[in-house]
Design brief:
Layout: E1 9-10, E2 23-28, H1 41-44, E3 49-54, H2 71-87, E4 93-98, H3 100-114, E5 122-126, H4 145-153, H5 160-163, H6 166-184, E6 198-203, H7 211-215, E7 225-230, H8 236-239, H9 241-252
Parallel strand pairs: 2-3, 2-4, 4-5, 5-6, 6-7
Antiparallel strand pairs: 1-3
Helix pairs in contact: 2-3
C-alpha cells in the first residue's frame, strides 16, 4: 500500500512479505501513551493485518506540540489528519483503542460519520465502559503530584521504575494530566448508534470496570456486538499477550 507522510499516523515499516494485508487496524493509545505502545504489534499479529498507529500531539516525535485537553477539539484534528490516508485505503479498516483510546476511537468514528467519510468496518474497544455511563470515580487530573501518582499506581500498568525517576515524572506528568483531562471532562452526546460491528474487551480484575458498563456499549451499534473478558487487570493486554493477540487477530479478520 502506498503510504504518504502523515504526522498523525505512524505507518508500518516497508518489508517484503508474500502475504498481502486484508485489513488495516488503526490503533489509539491509552492515557499517557504514544504510538510506540503498539510498535511490536506488527510482529505479534497476523501479516494479513497492517497496523497504523495514531500519534497524538505532545508525545514522542510530536513532543514539542501543544497537548490537547478538549475532546471535541482533539477529535476534529484527528479526523482532519486522517482524511487523506483514509481515502487512500483500498481494503477495509478497523479501529482499536484501549482505555482513553476507546473513547477517542468511538468519537472519531462518529465524527467521520458526520463528515460522510468511509467508516471503519469494525470498532474494537478495550478497558473502558460505554461512553454514556457516568464515571463514578472523582477526578484526579488536578491532584497534587504525590496524590496523582498514588492514583496512577492503581491502574497497575506503569513500571515501578517510573515512580522512582524524577526526570521521567517531570516529563510525563503534563501528558498524563492532559489525557486524564480529556477523559474526565468528556461529555457524551446522544446520537444514533453506529452501524458497524462493535467488539468490547474487558478484564475480570480491572477495578475500573463493571460487566454492566461494558455491556452498555451494545447500545452504540445496530450491528453485531461481542463482549470478551480476559484474565488480568487494566493492562491485561500486556499480561495475557498470547491469548489477547490470538483473539484480536481472529476478531479483525472475522468480517
Amino acid at each position: 500500500m502506498n503510504l504518504e507522510k502523515n504526522k498523525w499516523i505512524v505507518f508500518p515499516k516497508k518489508h517484503e512479505s508474500k502475504i498481502s494485508p486484508k485489513k488495516v487496524l488503526i490503533c489509539f493509545a491509552h492515557s499517557g501513551g504514544g504510538a510506540s505502545v503498539y510498535h511490536h504489534w506488527e510482529k505479534l499479529l497476523s501479516p494479513e493485518i497492517e497496523i497504523w498507529r495514531v500519534q497524538l500531539p505532545g508525545r514522542e516525535e510530536r513532543w514539542d506540540e501543544r497537548l490537547e485537553r478538549s475532546m471535541p477539539e482533539l477529535i476534529a484534528k484527528i479526523c482532519d489528519g486522517l482524511t487523506l490516508s483514509l481515502r487512500n485505503i483500498h481494503i477495509p479498516y478497523l479501529f482499536f483503542g484501549h482505555s482513553l483510546g476507546s473513547l477517542v476511537t468511538f468519537e472519531t468514528a462518529r465524527e467521520l460519520r458526520r463528515r460522510n467519510m468511509k467508516l471503519p468496518q469494525q470498532l474494537i474497544v478495550s478497558g473502558r465502559e460505554a461512553p454514556q455511563c457516568p464515571d463514578p470515580d472523582p477526578p484526579i487530573r488536578d491532584l497534587p503530584e504525590k496524590e496523582f501518582l498514588i492514583e496512577l499506581r492503581k491502574y497497575e500498568g506503569t513500571p515501578e521504575s517510573f515512580f522512582q525517576d524524577p526526570d521521567l515524572i517531570k516529563f510525563f506528568l503534563p501528558i498524563l494530566r492532559a489525557d486524564f483531562t480529556l477523559g474526565e471532562t468528556y461529555q457524551y452526546r446522544d446520537e444514533p448508534p453506529l452501524d458497524c460491528p462493535l467488539t468490547v474487551y474487558g478484564s475480570v480484575a480491572d477495578p475500573n470496570l463493571t460487566t454492566e458498563g461494558l455491556r452498555a456499549w451494545e447500545k452504540q451499534t445496530t450491528n453485531d456486538f461481542q463482549l470478551r473478558m480476559f484474565e488480568g487487570h487494566h493492562f491485561y493486554l500486556h499480561e495475557r499477550q498470547p491469548i489477547f493477540f490470538q483473539t484480536l487477530a481472529k476478531d479483525c479478520l472475522k468480517y
